[in-house]
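Hi! If you just cloned this repository, the fastest way to understand the data is to look at a raw example. We've pasted two of them here, unedited. The first protein comes first, obviously.
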Amino acid sequence: MGVIRFFFYLLIFLISTSLYSQDTNDTIFINNHSYVKHIVKADQTIDDISELYKISVNRILETNETGMKLYKQQVLYIPIKRNKVEGTASNRGKKLDIALLLPFYKNLNDTLVASFEDKDKANDVILGKSNMALQFMQGIHLALDSLERLGVAINLVVYDTRNDSAKVVEIVRSKMLDTVDIIIGPIYSRNMEIVSDKYGNDKNKMLISPLSKSSEFLKNNPSTIQINTPFKIQSKIITKFIEEKYNAKNVIICYEEEEKGLALYLERQLSKNTNRIMKINMIYTHIDSIRSQFLDSQIVILPSFNRAFVSKMLATLGGIDSSFIVFGLSNLKNYDHLDIENLMHLDVHFPDPYYFNKNIRRDSLLLYSFEEKFLSSPSRFSIAAYNIMMHFCNKNMIYNLEKYRLTGGKINVYAPLVRYLDYSLERAVY
């Protein structure tokens, strides 16, 4: 199976340049290659389509890996030259141009498929690390449906970054991003910095970092936006909650040496209003080594982005016969292996920039629409993608953006504190 065919097999529901996609020849772009989406009409043959687009039958077959016999409403992707795409787009009304930069790893998927002797089984295989991008694209696609109903027209161009800095540089140098209005991604900070260096001062653009916790790309780049709330804002959310609800309780900050700076910052924030603070460098995390460090009733803060450290500390705290209220950072939500019963037992709290509440009408509609369309529940990546599109393309007030430094971009400061209750995340109440 060829890489283009395999990619479209996985993402056939994902990409459309126009929300008004009932035409039989919408145009899409993948990594600087242009294709027309053609929907086969009744009694239309492969030769008819070849003549229509002035392209060989073999090229159509190679791209789509279909047989000579077609059927009504079959979707084909026809390779075309770039100038034909521009001519097609210019005949339509003004649309919002959006570029999406995600790590699909098409090249690795193609290699994986080629390694299978049984090609039927290969059709069902997706490289594990492609899942994040695919789930993100599901949210994008659902948002396109919603925006279409609202009358918002979108030109969406998708690039596979492969999480490769050289590939991102290639995309930037191609100048394909010069004319877009919104750039979403790349996902990872080092690649986001490459795009920001080029377009971060372009007043006609918005560069949105959807998931990265690093804020480096924001510096001196006023057109950039970070959705994942930075650590300093998260720490202020945590300390405000503790000071207003648990000011009389003892606080212990547990940290590793390499994250001592985060602990010191939190300590300074808390010490303004309370003196009941202890800070411990957790060299050991085994229960017998640290049991004596804790009181019978205490607030524990884990200001760490280290999955292994946080996981070990939560497991250890769960085995100590004390009453804890634990506070962590937003990355806790990403740790799927954690024992939810232990998280409830420890009353774990953390700020959540991607908070989703199925009891809120907006989120319940998202959930219903997603399940109806994809026959599954949305992942956190799908939800993040949907909300980003709806906020920036339809001015839905989902995020609260504030300036990051005088000459920098903007950060999302909306990250409500949540806690585990009855096996789900609920917003913590002051």
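Ok, and the second one:
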Amino acid sequence: MRKSTFILPGLFVLAIAAYSSLFVVDERQKALVLQFGRVVQVKEDPGLGFKIPLIQEVVYYDDRIRSIDVQPVRVIPSDNRVLEVDSFARYRITDPVRFRERVGVGGEAAADARLAPILSSATLTVLGEVESDAILSADRAELMDRIRDAAIETAEGFGVTIVDVRLRRTDLPDANKIATFQRMISERRQEAADLRARGREASQRIRSAADRAVREIVSAAERQAQVIRGQADARAAAIYAAAYGTDEEFFSFYESLLRYRQALANGNTRILTSPDGEFFAYLQSVNGGIEGGLPAPSVDPDAVPSIDDLLAGLPEYDSAGDAMDAVLDEVAPIPEIGAPPGFEDDVLETDPATVVDDLMDGGTGMPEPEDPPAGDDDAATDQD
């Protein structure tokens, strides 16, 4: 009875001691066995471990890749444009003994607080050496690798290895956003004004060329019309002269009657002239002041062709247009009226899209004049 009284408590104490001396290391953890704060054993492989109860203790650290958020920092690149950079990093505890010595009892939380300034300093150093455009371009991945390499050397003193550094967001400070947007708007407006000015210049050139062509065409047409009118008047005068030249005295008498009709048309006309003037020659005398009376016709009346005979000798036309074409065929040839040389090819057939593209490239918007063929100068010399 007495033996059982001591055996049962002893077995219980031994069971508690055996349980206290065992510890389990998960595959996601690393363990340190501490004795009075000093590391006496490192357990990195998963499984069971042993320690001295009440004297030794076990501290576990995460063996997985951890993530740390870095506070946004203001970076001033080489082009002096202030940027706010928000980043994060991933690290892993590779040396738990050194990690314990440098970080202390704070563990992973203390490590995050110690690593954040290191990452911020590396970000400022690397991004301060490049321009802001490089931070926002495809070189961003290379810059993140440089930040990681710069932070690895310092982080190794804490027993950790920086696996990766990423820039989450790169933005302008709120105070600079409005000014930046206004500058962008001003640049776009200036560019639009420049394009409009070049467009107006090209439009003015086209209008000037078109106006010049219009003036030349109208001038040539008026010159051609004057030539046609002059030739028509000359032919009409020749016809009149041929008609009235048959009897000059009768022509003079007929012209005087026409002048009387014009002068005395309104019935209340006063004429101040000498009574002996030529104007009243046929009013003062039947024979017009010619002794012996009017001369006899110089042509035989029977020899004068009748109206029917004159009409029968004229060609017949189907329309007035055909008659005009026949008259124009008899006059001197008139050169064909056309646009100035190169106007149709250079101006009328110019593609508007080509003009706009040329203006965007800094051009004038007008097609370049083509060099004449090599044989044109010789041909012109021969014609001269």
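That's it. A detail worth noticing about the second one: The domain at 66-171 is CATH 3.30.479.30 (Tetrahydropterin Synthase; Chain A).
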